[in-house]
Amino acid sequence: MAPTARSLGDHLREWRQRRRMSQLDLALEADISQRHLSFIESGRSTPSRDMLLHLAERLGVPLRDRNPLLLAAGFAPVFTERALDDPALEPARRAIDMVLKAHQPFPALAIDRHWTLVASNAALAPLISGIADPSLLEPPVNLLRLSLHPQGLAPRIANLPEWRAHLIDRLRQQISASGDPVLERLLKELLSYPVPEAANDAHSDHAGIAVPLKLSTKAGPLSLISTTTVFGTPVDITLSELAVESFFPADEETAAILRGLSLN
């Protein structure tokens, strides 16, 4: 038997509960009556497309998951998903390339919603080359797998317990926000890797401001902090799920080493 299609009310209720919001909470956020929202969830009232998109916005529903809401209400999908090399995304791809290049000699990379490496600048290659399992660098490269796999970068990360906890926490937050089953499987895989013993400096000084990535390299130890950049007003699904991770030196020694690597 074919599975029964989920109703609009089921979709809304799931996202509302995922966000830990009562009907009253969402109604206040959306500036509508709780009675109206109750009628929408129960199927007694059919919202307009604009109202549905407004509710999705207040719930923080990812663009990818707004189309199923629209379809459940009988509307056509609004948000498109293009390949990154689609001509329509050329301005966005050009912007990403400009950001990555401008960040040299410090490493920067772009990832998609599943932490798959999409692009990087030249400063990244020396830091990830020569790992024990070269297959981890074969496309599609998953940044979390590469970072935490025992034959990947993990043996080189001096503060692995701390960095691992940081990445796992980020992934769990992403799963909580999206409910993505691919990310759930990735989390299960990462948790199956050997758990590193907490070193005495597992709780470091956070480089004074943030959790650093302390990476051992042939050129010397690096201490890096990172920022995440996303597009501000995307209406394309692919674009909405891209993020640029930029790494900055946490000390002058790291900055000098990275500048030296760029000259080699």
Automatic annotation (TrEMBL):
InterPro entries: Cro/C1-type_HTH, Lambda_DNA-bd_dom_sf, MLTR_LBD. CDD domains: HTH_XRE. One of its GO terms (molecular function) is DNA binding. It comes from the Bacteria. Residues 12-66 form the HTH cro/C1-type domain. PROSITE patterns: HTH_CROC1. This is Helix-turn-helix transcriptional regulator. It comes from Rhizobium redzepovicii.
